[in-house]
Amino acid sequence: MTESILKKYIKLKNQATALKRCASLDPETMKGIKYDPIIAGKSSAKFIQGNEAIELVTLKKEELLIKAKRAEEIADNIYNTVLELKNEKNGEELFNVIDLRYFQNKKFEEIKTAMPEIEMSTIYRRRKQALRILEDMYLLSVYMAI
Question: What does CATH list as the number for 79-145?
Answer without folding.
Answer: 1.10.10
